[in-house]
């Protein structure tokens, strides 16, 4: 079962599966409410959670802590 966005913690690493994509994300900062600045550990790019979920949550959506 996926972790709720309000349970994410700064400095922790999570694996997000959505719309067929799997990403390993480190939470860098909490911006506001449920929005976080994240670092993609595969590409080293920075995103916000809202940018990653802007097209919605697919049937395969999952978010779990990995470290």
Plain-language structure description:
This protein has a single domain (5-65), classed as SH3 type barrels (Roll), CATH 2.30.30. The protein has one helix and five strands. 6% of the residues lie in helices and 46% in strands. Strand 2 (21-32) and strand 3 (35-40) form a beta hairpin. The protein has a five-stranded antiparallel beta sheet with strand order 4-3-2-1-5. It starts with 12 loop residues before the first strand and ends with a strand. It has one helix at 49-52; strands at residues 13-18, 21-32, 35-40, 46-48, 62-65. The radius of gyration is 11 Å and the shape is globular. The chain is mainly β.
CATH topology: SH3 type barrels
Question: Which strand order spans the largest sheet, edge to edge or round the barrel?
Answer: 4-3-2-1-5
| Range of strand content | over 45%
Q: Could you spell the SSE succession in H and E letters?
A: EEEEHE
Instruction: Please state the second-level CATH architecture.
Output: Roll
- Return the CATH class: Mainly Beta
> Biggest sheet, in brief?
5 strands, antiparallel
The number of helical segments is: 1
**Total strands:** 5
SS-derived structural category: mainly beta
**How far from one another are the termini?**
17 Å
What level of helicity do the residues show? under 10%
Low-confidence stretches: none
The radius of gyration is: 11 Å
Total domains, how many?
A: 1
Q: Which outline best applies?
A: globular
């Amino acid at each position: 079962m996926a972790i709720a966005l309000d349970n994410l913690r700064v400095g922790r690493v999570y694996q997000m599966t959505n719309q067929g994509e799997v990403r390993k994300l480190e939470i860098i900062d909490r911006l506001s409410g449920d929005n976080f600045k994240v670092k993609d550990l595969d590409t080293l790019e920075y995103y916000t959670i809202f940018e990653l979920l802007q097209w919605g949550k697919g049937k395969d959506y999952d978010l779990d802590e990995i470290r």
